[in-house]
From TrEMBL:
GO cellular component: plasma membrane
Pfam families, per the entry: HAMP (PF00672), HATPase_c (PF02518), HisKA (PF00512), sCache_3_3 (PF17202)
This protein's name: histidine kinase
Gene3D superfamilies in UniProt: 1.10.287.130, 6.10.340.10, Histidine kinase-like ATPase, C-terminal domain
Main location as per UniProt: membrane
Subcellular location: Cell membrane
Enzyme class, spelled out: transferase
Record's keyword annotation contains Cell cycle: no
Ranges that cross the membrane: 26-50, 338-360
SUPFAM superfamilies found in the cross-reference section: ATPase domain of HSP90 chaperone/DNA topoisomerase II/histidine kinase, HAMP domain-like, Homodimeric domain of signal transducing histidine kinase, Sensory domain-like
Length: 676
């Protein structure tokens, strides 16, 4: 039989991955940690450490900038406090009454280290000034002065031009003047000189006696020029870096900028010459003065790179007029960082140089004996059962395995001899099995007898057909003879017709069952419920004799293509088995329904009984040839033949049984077109 259906799953490919040798894997195990894993781990560790190192340097620069800011603020606060104290002192009041303010201001200016100190009225009139000859003009325009006239003291850093500086202190503009020095990385400029001055500018209200015995308020104004103020940056540098432990050659620096020009610094150009007049790099200028950011990073300073911290300096009006800078040379830290990296790499290389040969020796001590075992296995596989591994120098588990392997080979050789002896014994057992087959042949003879009974049954059926034909013919003659008078017995004639037809159908089904070859040989479209109905006709006498009731349920809407007589043979066999399983009577359930299985549409025919059931140890053997559960009668071929017939059409027979509760046999057939 050839069934047209969907192809089954493809066979798995015969290509298989070949396992790499133990040698390769052991070498990988030995070398990967030192050659790949550890370098990656060290790389990540060094990357993280370098990042933390740079972050620490930037953090230190930030801390240094905080100290510098506080120092500058303290200087401004001290000047503010000193001028305020002078304006409120008794000496100031006494000098004002005695017209000795010029002398007092000169003495206090020198004592306080100020570059100028003067007293101005609210209308801008200068009442007293130091140094001698100073004539401040336009002082009322300064924010700090206006605040003092309003009764508040204030200190700020302001930018004075050359005229303003000479007005408050003759010669001060000359001190502030700086020639600009061309500086690498600085922004382009056409300026060649810086004439402005960066001044700590303080003002405090000061009461003045009135000629009429009243009082009036003036502003006591003082300031210090920061241009060239080396004491300021040196003190700041000592405050931050005097006790700092900077690596070899490292030096800390501090600078005060007017705009982008260094006006006070301890950064050196060469030798002991300070880098006054040099300019800040363009990137720092744009970030700090342009955008008002605090710079915390590496930056180019004059002629080298420094870990730098810059912040903008604002004047009394809030405009950015300069920068405060602290930093330290980057190169020593860069060298220290690369020295650390080199030390780690060198330590790793030394460890690898020492470790890898040792690991290779360990790996070789493992794979050499294994390769020897492999060669021995190949020799044994070729037929040399006397091949042995021999002595392995290793005394560990590998050596133990080698010795055990040789012992197994000894046992294998012994077992081979035993198997040869067993083969001779097997020949003797074959002769015994031959005798058993003879017994099976006798059972087949019994099957032939059953076939003969089938022939006899067919003959009897043919013989019954003759009297049936006579009865049918005479009945027709009687109808013709009686004519209209036959209407009185028409009911009886119809009953005889029905019973004759019933006998004829029984004989036909009996012939189909007894001689299936005459009715088989072709496939037809079969309605499962009709086959079950035909089978009930043939087994009705067994049902009545065994007092078995019938329960049917036909819900199948599909048809199957199968030999009707072969399907009838299978269903009758299951019905007969069910009747025999209920010797005291019971209920025979017959059910047909649509059923899908294995991804195909199909039909199921279920035959169940309420009989004695089948033991579990026998249930898996019931489809074996010559196996029967009956204590007498039966050849054990019915279910085996039925299973074979159904399998020919792509179907299955399954069974479920419980002792004393009955059995359920289910025939499943696919709805497919089969070709023979």
């Amino acid at each position: 039989m050839e069934c047209v259906s969907d192809p089954g799953p493809r066979e798995p490919s015969t290509n298989r991955w070949r396992l790499r040798s133990v040698r390769t894997r052991l070498l990988a195990i030995a070398l990967l940690p030192m050659g790949a894993v550890l370098p990656v781990v060290l790389g990540f560790a060094l990357f993280w450490w370098l990042g933390q190192f740079d972050a620490l340097l930037v953090s230190k620069a930030h801390d240094d900038l905080i100290i510098a800011r506080q120092y500058l603020r303290r200087i401004m606060e001290r000047g503010d406090e000193q001028i305020a104290a002078l304006g409120q002192s008794a000496a100031f009041a006494e000098a004002a009454r005695a017209d000795g303010l010029d002398t007092l201001l000169e003495d206090r200016r020198k004592a306080l280290g100020l570059d100028f100190l003067y007293l101005t009225a609210a209308d801008g009139t200068v009442l007293a000034a130091s140094p001698a000859g100073a004539r401040p003009a336009g002082s009322a325009g300064w924010r700090v002065v206006r605040a003092a006239h309003e009764g508040k003291r204030e200190t700020a850093i302001d930018v004075f031009d050359a005229n303003a500086m000479d007005a408050v202190s003759p010669g001060l503009a000359a001190r502030a003047r700086l020639d600009l020095v061309p500086t690498p990385a600085a922004a382009d400029t056409d300026r060649a000189v810086e004439t402005r001055g960066l001044v700590i500018h303080s003002a405090s209200p000061a009461p003045l006696p009135d000629s009429r015995g009243g009082a009036r308020t003036g502003a006591l104004v003082g300031g210090s020029l920061l241009n060239g103020n080396l004491g300021f940056v040196d003190t700041l540098n000592d405050l931050i870096y005097a006790h700092a432990d900077l690596p070899g050659g490292g030096q800390g620096t501090a600078t005060l900028f007017l705009d982008d020009v260094r006006v006070a610094t301890n950064v050196r150009l060469f030798g002991n010459r300070r880098a006054l007049g040099t300019r800040v790099s363009k990137e720092v200028h744009d970030a700090v003065l342009g955008r008002g950011r605090v710079w915390l990073d590496s930056a180019f300073v004059v002629n080298d790179r420094y870990i730098s911290a810059y912040e903008p300096v604002t004047d009394s009006t809030g405009h950015r007029v300069g920068m405060l800078y602290v930093g330290f040379l980057e190169q020593p830290f860069r060298l220290a960082r690369w020295a650390m990296v080199a030390a780690v790499v060198a330590a790793f290389a030394l460890a690898a140089l020492v470790t890898i040969p040792f690991l290779l020796r360990l790996a070789r001590a493992i794979f050499k004996p294994l390769e020897q075992m492999n060669r021995t296995i190949a020799a044994v596989d070729a037929g040399d059962l006397g091949a042995r591994i021999g002595t392995v120098p290793s005394g560990d588990e590998i050596g133990l395995v080698a010795r055990r392997f040789d012992e197994l080979l000894e046992r294998l050789q012994t077992r081979d001899a035993e198997l040869r002896a067993f083969a001779r014994e097997l020949d003797a057992r074959v002769e015994e099995r031959t005798r058993q087959l003879e017994e099976t042949r006798r059972q087949l003879v019994m099957s032939e007898k059953l076939a003969s009974i089938g022939e006899i049954t067919a003959g009897v059926a043919h013989e019954i057909n003759n009297p049936i034909a006579v009865i049918q013919g005479n009945l027709e003659v009687a109808r013709e003879v009686l004519g209209p008078a036959g209407e009185e017995v028409r009911t009886e004639f119809d009953l005889i017709d029905q019973q004759v037809h019933r006998v004829n159908m029984i004989v036909t089904r009996l012939l189909q069952f007894a001689r299936p070859d005459e009715y088989a040989g072709y496939v037809e479209t079969v309605v499962p419920a009709e086959v079950v109905t035909d089978c009930l006709v043939l087994v009705r006498h067994l049902l009545e004799r065994a007092d078995v009731a019938i329960e049917r349920e036909d819900t199948a809407t599909r048809t199957v293509e199968i030999s009707r007589t072969e399907l009838q043979q299978v269903v009758i066999n299951l019905m007969v088995n069910a009747i025999h399983a209920m010797p005291e009577g019971g209920l025979l359930r017959l059910k047909t329904q649509d059923n899908d299985y294995s991804g195909r549409e199909g039909v199921a025919i279920e035959v169940s009984d309420t009989g004695v059931g089948i033991p579990a140890d026998r249930l898996r053997k019931i489809f074996d040839p010559f196996f029967t559960t009956r204590t007498h009668g039966g050849t054990g071929l019915g279910l085996s033949i039925s299973y074979t017939l159904i399998a020919r059409y792509g179907g299955t027979i399954t069974v479920h049984s419980e002792l004393e509760r009955g059995s359920i046999f289910v025939i499943r057939l696919p709805v497919i077109r089969c070709q023979y």
